[in-house]
Specification:
Elements lengths: L1 H29 L3 H28 L2 H18 L6 H15 L4 H10 L4 H53 L13 H12 L2 H30 L4 H29 L1 H20 L4 H30 L4 H30 L3 H20 L9
Helix pairs in contact: 1-2, 1-6, 2-4, 2-12, 3-4, 3-6, 5-6, 5-11, 6-9, 6-11, 8-9, 8-10, 8-11, 8-12, 8-13, 9-10, 9-11, 10-11, 10-13, 12-13
């Protein structure tokens, strides 16, 4: 089960960030500018966010493995179809379809892992997060070497084929903890339960904290390479910062969530998001590439822990009865932060001529996410 979940996470996040590597070649071939290339990625992220809410509802009331298997073919087909795109709209449509399929790359997986390992949820969710980090870290290393041989079209087709030939069989073979936790509950009863959650202050406080943290971490992911070049570093050094976040995030994924199993989820979030705020504030004031790299280490550790801790917090608050729906709704809120960070940060950089203000604003949003997290009071309910 865990191998299947990690495999899906590996490819879902690897493909998401592979676009940044393949995009320059696509831009030259299809005659796209930066704004149009960004539109293609927005199509992926937009459909991913919208579909995550639907997937969250489905995994609460249907067999989880079946839901994943319904969506994986969309992910594989959309990814492979990117290699056939001959225009902006064909690429946007293809990546949008991939985004719908990629919706099973997080919410169902965190529900699955927590059902299978209820006593050490933080620890095993951290292991799942390692799959995400390895996905974009590994493909980030492999794709530049593959590109000269197969081109960007061949690279997308290989990724699509790997998704179909690897993920679907390994998921079909997985066993354990796939049935809904309340198989006797009707969908009408489920929606009634979910509506009651919407009236709970902790849902909105936690969701806003997630939105703010997502905005903060996305600022570093969006601008670290360009910031490095602004400080005089070369192209390779800028890319190295992105990889640094991914691989250092493994430490955060395995460390802070494991601590949260003992110290409590709120304490884990306070530790993690404090590191995020500190790293972003230090990055804002960095005067050299090496200083930026040093502060990015703290950001990288927090990147590894942030998604895991909020996923575990959902079950602490609501048990298993509506965990998928709440995680899907929080993914919708977090997605707003992910979507807002690049354009708002870019406007600040253009207006000020430096990255200081953009990173300071991100540090403030990370600090605000701390304040909201401190107001959440997990009741650590167990599923019925």
């Amino acid at each position: 089960m865990l191998a299947s979940a990690m495999s899906i996470a590996f490819m879902a996040y690897g493909v998401r960030y592979a676009y940044g590597i393949l995009m320059p070649e696509m831009m030259r071939s299809l005659g796209l500018n930066d704004a149009l290339a960004g539109l293609i990625y927005s199509s992926f992220l937009g459909t991913y966010i919208a579909a995550s809410l639907v997937v969250g509802f489905l995994v609460d009331v249907r067999d989880l493995k079946h839901v994943i298997l319904y969506f994986l073919p969309l992910f594989a087909a959309g990814t492979g179809a990117m290699g056939l795109a001959s225009s902006l709209w064909e690429a946007a449509l293809s990546f949008g379809v991939a985004g719908v399929g990629a919706a099973v790359g997080w919410t169902p997986l965190v529900i699955w892992v927590q059902r299978a390992y209820p006593e050490r949820r933080g620890t095993y969710l951290g292991v799942l997060q390692v799959g995400c980090n390895l996905g974009f870290g590994t493909l980030g290393l492999l794709l530049p070497g593959v590109l000269p041989a197969v081109g960007w079209r061949g690279a997308w087709m290989l990724l699509g084929a790997a998704s179909a030939l690897w993920l679907i069989p390994v998921t079909a073979a997985a066993r354990g903890a796939t049935a809904p936790e309340r198989p006797d509950a009707s969908f009408r009863r489920y929606l009634s339960d979910f509506r009651s959650v919407l009236g709970d202050n902790s849902f909105w406080i936690g969701g806003i904290s997630y939105l703010l943290a997502s905005y903060a971490i996305m600022t570093s992911l969006s601008f670290s390479a360009d910031y490095a070049k602004y400080l005089g570093a070369g192209e390779a050094a800028g890319g190295a910062l992105f990889s640094l976040i991914g691989f250092v995030g493994i430490v955060g994924a395995l460390g802070v969530p494991t601590l949260s199993d003992r110290l409590g989820r709120r304490t884990g979030l306070l530790i993690n998001n404090s590191l995020m705020a500190m790293g972003l504030a230090g990055s804002a004031l960095a005067g050299t590439y090496h200083a930026l790299a040093a502060w990015t280490l703290a950001v990288g550790v927090s990147y590894g822990g942030v998604w895991v801790l909020y996923a575990a917090l959902v079950r602490d608050l609501y048990g298993g009865r509506v965990a998928g729906g709440v995680m899907g709704a929080w993914t919708l809120l977090g997605g707003m932060g992910l979507l807002l960070a690049p354009p708002l940060g870019g406007l600040m950089v253009d207006a000020s001529g430096s990255y200081t203000i953009a990173y300071l604003v991100a540090a403030v949003t990370a600090a605000l996410s701390l304040a909201f997290a401190a107001l959440v009071h997990p009741r650590d309910r167990r599923p019925a």
